[in-house]
Amino acid sequence: MDHWIAPSILSADFSRLGAEIEAVLEAGADVIHFDVMDNHYVPNLTIGPLVLESLRRAGFGCFFDVHLMVKPVDRLIGDFLGAGANLISVHPESTEHLHRTLSLIRDGGAQAGLVFNPATPLQALDEALELIDLALVMSVNPGFGGQAFIESSLGKLAEARRRIDASGRPVRLEIDGGIKVANIAQAAAAGADTFVAGSAIFGADDYAATIAAMREELADLRSV
Ligand code: DX5
Ligand code: ZN
Q1: Tell me: the pLDDT tens digits for 143-175?
Q2: Residue closest by Cα to atom 1 of ligand 1
Q3: CA 159 from chain center: how many Å?
Q4: Could you tell me how far CA 199 lies from the centroid of its own chain?
Q5: Which atom of ligand 1 is nearest to the CA of 138?
Q6: What radius of gyration, in Å, describes the C-alpha atoms of the chain?
Q7: Could you give the CA distance from residue 109 to residue 97 in angstroms, rounded to a whole number?
């Protein structure tokens, strides 16, 4: 699968959100990662479906990769489907009935993703593979941008890649947390094809140069 770079707007300047999204898209972002936090499932509070809806109304036609860190999660899925999410990812800990939750997403016409925290085993992945379009391995504990990459995530990524490939299903593998120019190649080598980066992109002076440097790392890896 193609490599996708997914800037996380968690690190954007929220007073200029539309302009920030426009800028990263122009700089070469493939999708926009939209982090939703509820101060319950994770100790932080961010943005909800109204913000997505207003971005759609303003004309943003890009792919929105919505990462839900909320509990309970089911009721908000309908709101995000209505707001125009393309892909909605959920954590297994945020729902009592994962199969129902993932089905709600797909039945509503969006792609579904399943997220694994650093200490969450991949156990649910095999059962869920036919219900999802993306598996997301967290390489930080969810809740904040700008945290350090947890190295043990690389082994977990490789194991998730092995299971996805063995299934033969077209499931993307995303990594989220602490991704930078310096370690994106390592994550790709371990099997990731979709790379969330918040602080590394929005914290840089030149978004396009940063995304280009990430792509160069990915291209170098392909040529070895
Ligand atoms: C963390 C979020 C991430 C976060 C990543 O809970 O899910 O998407 O924005 O930020 P960086 O890239 O700064 O680690
Ligand atoms: Zn995220």
Answers
A1: 999 999 999 999 999 999 999 999 999 999 999
A2: 142
A3: 18
A4: 14
A5: 7
A6: 16
A7: 19
